[in-house]
C-alpha cells in the first residue's frame, strides 16, 4: 500500500462510453429507460441525443475509486448528476475521472472525485471514503 | 401537485433479491471491473432504484418525468453472490422547487437481520 497525503492529486483515468456500453449497462442494471438507447425517443423528450445513465457515469467513477484499494474497501460514495453525458451513435465519448485526497486517517481515506466529458464537469460534489487495510 | 403526506411513506419489496454470481459478473463487465469476487459499490442501485420506482408511482408521481439528481451510498459490507437481500425504501423528504418536485428516497438493504447498504437517491420529477 502506497502512502497518501492530504491534497495529493491522483492520476486520472479515461473511460470510454459508447452506445454498446450503454446497452451493456442497461442490461446489467435493469435500467432500460429508452433515453439511454433510443435516439429518436431521446430527441422527442427534448434531449440533444441519447444520454448515458447517470448511474453508469457514477459506476465508472466508482471503478476509479475501487482501483485504489479494491471494491471491498469502498465505504461511502456520493455524487450529484450535474450535466448529462451525451452519446451520439458511432462515437467513443471519453470520460476523464480524477481524484484528490481530502483527508487521511489511520485506516481510511476521503477522496474528492472529478469526472469530465469534453471540458464539461458531469458529476458534482463527488466524494468517496475508502478503508485502508 | 406535491402531496406532503408522502413523506415517511415506506415500501418494502414482497420478495427478496437473490444475488447471483452471473449478475455481479455482468455488472462488473458493463463497467470494466476485473474483480468479480464482490459486487461493485454502486451495484445496489439495481435493486433500490426499482423499489423507488414502485414507491414514487404509488405516491402518484410521474416516473416518466424523473431525473436522477444525486446519489449516496453507505456500505457496511460489499454484496456477494449468495446474498438474499430485502429492500426497504422510505420517502425521507419531498419539496417543490420552481415547479419541480424533489423527492429523497432512502433504501436500506438487509441480508437477514444485517444491514448491508443504505443509499439515498434524490429524484427530480420535472414540471
Q: Would you give an account of this structure?
A:
The complex is a heterodimer of chains A (about 130) and B (about 130). By secondary structure, chain A is α+β, with helices and mostly antiparallel strands. Chain A has a domain at about 10-15 and about 55-130: Hotdog Thioesterase (Thiol Ester Dehydrase, Chain A, Roll), CATH 3.10.129.10. Helices cover about 25% and strands about 40% of the residues of chain A. Chain A is built from three helices and six strands. Chain A is elongated, with a radius of gyration of 16 Å. The N and C termini of chain A lie close together (about 10 Å). Helix content of chain B is about 20%, strand content about 40%. Chain B has helices at about 20-30, 45-60, and strands at about 10, 15-20, 65-75, 85-95, 100-110, 115-125. The relative contact order of chain B is 0.25. The model of chain B has no long low-confidence stretch (mean pLDDT about 90). The interface of A and B includes residues 55 and 125 of A. Strand 2 of chain A pairs antiparallel with strand 3 of chain B, so a sheet runs across the interface.
Keywords:
heterodimer, A: 133 residues, alpha+beta, Thiol Ester Dehydrase, Chain A, 6-stranded antiparallel sheet, 3 helices, B: 127 residues, 6 strands
Amino acid at each position: 500500500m502506497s502512502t497518501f497525503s492530504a491534497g495529493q492529486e491522483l492520476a486520472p483515468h479515461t473511460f470510454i462510453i459508447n452506445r454498446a456500453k450503454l446497452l451493456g449497462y442497461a442490461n446489467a442494471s435493469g435500467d432500460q429507460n429508452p433515453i439511454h438507447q433510443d435516439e429518436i425517443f431521446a430527441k422527442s423528450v427534448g434531449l440533444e441525443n441519447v444520454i448515458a445513465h447517470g448511474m453508469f457515469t457514477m459506476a465508472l467513477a466508482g471503478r476509479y475509486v475501487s482501483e485504489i484499494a479494491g471494491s471491498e474497501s469502498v465505504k461511502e460514495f456520493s455524487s450529484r448528476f450535474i450535466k448529462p453525458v451525451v452519446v451520439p451513435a458511432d462515437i467513443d465519448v471519453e470520460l476523464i475521472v480524477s481524484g484528490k485526497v481530502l483527508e487521511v486517517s489511520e485506516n481510511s481515506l476521503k477522496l474528492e472525485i472529478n469526472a469530465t466529458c469534453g471540458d464539461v464537469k458531469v458529476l458534482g460534489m463527488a466524494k468517496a471514503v475508502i478503508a485502508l487495510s | 401537485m406535491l402531496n406532503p403526506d408522502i413523506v415517511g411513506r415506506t415500501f418494502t419489496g414482497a420478495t427478496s433479491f437473490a444475488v447471483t454470481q452471473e449478475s455481479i459478473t455482468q455488472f462488473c463487465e458493463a463497467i470494466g471491473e476485473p474483480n468479480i469476487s464482490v459486487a461493485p459499490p454502486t451495484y445496489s442501485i439495481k435493486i433500490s432504484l426499482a423499489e423507488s420506482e414502485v414507491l414514487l408511482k404509488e405516491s402518484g408521481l410521474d416516473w416518466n418525468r424523473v431525473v436522477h439528481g444525486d446519489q449516496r451510498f453507505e456500505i457496511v459490507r460489499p454484496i456477494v453472490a449468495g446474498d438474499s437481500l430485502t429492500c426497504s425504501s422510505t420517502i425521507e423528504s419531498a419539496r417543490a422547487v420552481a415547479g419541480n418536485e424533489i423527492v429523497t428516497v432512502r433504501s436500506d438493504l438487509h441480508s437477514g437481520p444485517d444491514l448491508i447498504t443504505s443509499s439515498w437517491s434524490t429524484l427530480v420529477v420535472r414540471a
